[in-house]
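Ticket #4471: structure output looks truncated?

Reporter: J.K.
Steps to reproduce: submitted the chain below (707 residues) through the standard prediction queue, then opened the result file.
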Amino acid sequence: MDRIYDALGDGSDVLFEGATGTGKTLAALVPALEYAREEDKTVVITTNVHQQMRQFVREARAITEQEPIRAVVFRGKGSMCHVDVGYEECQALRDTTREIVEKEQDLAELNEREETLLEESQAGSEEAAEARGAVVEELEAVEEDLEDLRETGNTCDYYYQNLTGNTDAFYEWLFADVRDPDDIYEYAEMEGFCGYELLKEGMEGVDLVVCNYHHLLDPGIREHFFRWLGRDPEDVITVFDEAHNVEDAARDHATRTLTENTLDSALDELAEQDDPRAEAARNVVQAFRSALVETYDDALGFGERERIEENWEDLTITNEGGRDDLTIAFLQAYTGPGYDVDLREALKFARALDEKYEEAYKNGETSTRQECQTLQTIQFVRMWMDEGDAQGHYPVVSVRRDDASGDVYGRAELYRCIPQEVTRSLFEELHASVLMSATLRPFPVTEDVLGLDDPETMAYGAQFPEERRRTYAVEAPALFASERDDRAVQDTVTGVLEDAIRFTPGNTLAFFPSYSEAERYHDRVQTAGDRYLDKPATSARELREEFTDSQNGVLFTSLWGTLAEGVSFDDGDARTVVVVGVPYPHLDDRMEAVQEAYDQAFGDGGGEWMGTEDAGWAYAVEIPTVRKTRQALGRVVRSPEDFGARVLVDKRYTELGERELGNYTVRETFPPEERAEMIDIDPEKLKFAMLNFYGDMDAWDGAPPKP
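Returned output as attached by the reporter:
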């Protein structure tokens, strides 16, 4: 806490790694709040894990019990809206509603003024009589305007209540404790208020805000967010939890897409316009649509179209010698005075058209706020042409099959490989940030990838008694993709899993590189206990509750699923965690582009600290993969009284694998103190080791199983 406090005083960012369950949130939040109170700043704590949001609320409530703070928990409008409209519609509703309220206030003031002048004129004042005539004329005009707005304007009754009702009781209730968004929604619904807008208006001057990553990582939302806070960025301290996820989240926020459906909608929209300025937009949109279709048609080989399913599938469009296939096809398809000229004119027209839609909705001419597809399309095409060949920008074309029509259609995507394009400017603007996670190391990689300038770094390993945990690295075959279908390999892994489950006095978590591998061993493993299989789109919360209610169950899941991080399995919820294989991501063209971008950005010695000059592979693949494994291992042993075993099933985690597999091993990527705890063990001996360990913990209820 002292080191974090001092770093904030220096305006330095902090990279803070601490083992799971050791109190990182309070360790970062308390000094941040103390410093913010002394220096008149606001603390924003943020995560992209829903379970952590709930944890933040609990921590903030615990703090307020000792020393009251003004805290708000902020969530996106979509989950708090009482009338379920989009952002643009909501904005138009607010504007019209506010205009009506302002007219009503003007009307009330004019009525009061007219009555005063009437009394004065009746007392014989000619000046008052003349002035009253002018007021009456103005009053009639305002009444007419107000009647028109009420008859034709789209308004929000909830927001109207915000502007006209007494909100003192709401804010008194809000700051009496730390309220989560569901509580706010229910209270506001009961009182007829818009809780989301009241929350925005009540954020100014608060001590702490809890929010999602996108409030800070999306540049457009961030600008509004700071305005709601009433703070300049330099007066904000941020705490990023699960900060190992910032890299991917920032990359997602920087990436832009445009589907063939949006292009078609833009062409339909333009066909309805009589404005001569629409011709420039038509030239651009039609050429880009034709180029997109031509590009994916050419990229699909014989019979591939028929095999396309409902998920997006990337196609290779890059060229070593110059611009990508889509750009080349666009330039060939375009006919006009020059695409840059048409793009400028098209953007002016599209913005004017969008403003027209805004006015129509506000004036009640349309029941919904129409989205301007032309504006979305032109903005994307302009960005594609300006930035598509820039370093770290990877152009992609993808295809999928429409569920309803069965037709194949395409999507253009400008994928941003280097997230610091988003994060560097953010961290430079803020007073300081604390980025914390159980898996932030190696720190030099995090600094490079996020664009941090000389941050304070601190790392704390497991703080609980070492004798209450064991980490076994099983000398099972290296589960390369080419080996996973080998029957002998499967038999070995199945045996290890069955031993780990049988010699665990309680529940076992089993993580695999994919859902398909989890399902494979769910079907193979024989156990007397309950078996649970996690699948994509399964409710993680419900599955976790069902699993933890078991006394001797095993849960099969993917390391890339939602149960691998941000979820606690305390004490008897899970005793043993097994990680089968090394969860490398799918190494497609997109991942190769990230590797290449990292090589170009950091390859000049960037990987030497870990014994390799291949910075691209280290930064983009190996380190994130090992972080996944470390996150999974942290699901158990989460308090000083807790105990458990962590089992790594793959030779690449072992010392033997280090000697035999060379660069294919991953052991060296773990922090030194974690490597020191890994015990290499033969597959056949795991059961004896676990039997002895859990015997030392006096964990068996009755006689232990016989080996």
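Triage note (M.O.): checked the attachment and the full token line is present. The chain has 28 helices and 18 strands.
Status: closed, working as intended.
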